[in-house]
Amino acid sequence: MAETATARRSRLTPERAAELYTAVLDLLREVGYDALTMDAVAARTHSSKATLYRQWGGKAELVAHAMRHMKPGSIADVDTGSLRGDLAALVTREDDCAMEQNTALMRGLAMAVHNNPDLLRAFKELLIEPELEEFRRVLRRAVDRGEVREDNPAMEFVVHMLLGAFVTRTLIDELPPTQSFLLSYIDAVVLPALGVPTTT
Amino acid sequence: MAETATARRSRLTPERAAELYTAVLDLLREVGYDALTMDAVAARTHSSKATLYRQWGGKAELVAHAMRHMKPGSIADVDTGSLRGDLAALVTREDDCAMEQNTALMRGLAMAVHNNPDLLRAFKELLIEPELEEFRRVLRRAVDRGEVREDNPAMEFVVHMLLGAFVTRTLIDELPPTQSFLLSYIDAVVLPALGVPTTT
């Protein structure tokens, strides 16, 4: 019987996996995705390349898993009782300092994705899709509570609005997407577009 | 007396400049920014490298001018009488086919900007700032007409909303930002956030 990815990965303790992910992220910050080699990861973590390939399948998957590991807890457990609260919880999972570091890392990886279809695939599966799923859950709860009408045409554009805030803030404004910036944006753009009255 | 950039550039006829810009864009599509050389541009256009440097100063400026040249007419002259009309005119300057071609080109250049600060500078000066200025004019007219309140907090986020539509549509949805998509987005997100009633 073929081993599943989970079964393969379960051979490492969570502590050991965390150590490996931290080393991968350090190396990414030092040399970038294209120059990162499995040899360097193996050397830095005192593991064998065979182990790395067996556990993760390849560099792209290892990097995507490392990035996912870095994301502070899922908001799957968060249920604040309001759309505003849930969106705020979603965008303020990282504090401003972590956000600034991760923005630099994500920008570098966004460049690498352009020339590495396997990295794009791993990112979609391990990072983007789970994140989109969280948004769908948050919106579903808002509809169930009667906060947002199910047929509100802005419903399908929530990710467009929020990603626009991150990208424009970083690339055009050349400012960090701080928590206070993101909260202002939710109040000024996302909630009004969804027809949710803001308290201010 | 020092020559101004305009005086220097005026030595070329507009037709000759257009020919050069077309060749630069062709080369960009063929080899990308990093592999593009002034030698290749000179050879393709039967001009001397000295001429290219004298006219544009360098590769980054030449590429930014070529990209600006490609943009169909400014909307500075467009004044439709409504914010919806002006925004629609702004985002539908290119037809769907041109938009799809240019999106690929812009994505490649966005990657190059990451490693070429001079390209970022030239883009900001020649493409981004003039575009932001158009948006400010469009919004100013909407305020003057009484369509949007000057203190509406979404006023400062119009570019964030629209850039989010382009980026998310292209990278996450993996679909082209067609005119009909952009018009739906304006109606569903931008106008409601600005408190402008849509007719639908």
Automatic annotation (TrEMBL), chains A, B:
Annotated region of DNA binding: 37-56
PROSITE patterns recorded: HTH_TETR_2
UniProt-listed Pfam families: TetR_C_11 (PF16859), TetR_N (PF00440)
The HTH tetR-type domain, residue ranges: 14-74
UniProt entry keywords in alphabetical sequence: DNA-binding, Transcription, Transcription regulation
Superkingdom of the source species: Bacteria
Molecular-function GO terms, alphabetical: DNA-binding transcription factor activity; transcription cis-regulatory region binding
Keyword presence, Transcription regulation: yes
UniProt cross-references to InterPro entries, sorted A to Z: Homeodomain-like_sf, HTH-type_TetR-like_transc_reg, HTH_TetR, Tet_transcr_reg_TetR-rel_C_sf, TetR_C
Protein's name in the database: TetR family transcriptional regulator
Protein source organism: Streptomyces glaucescens
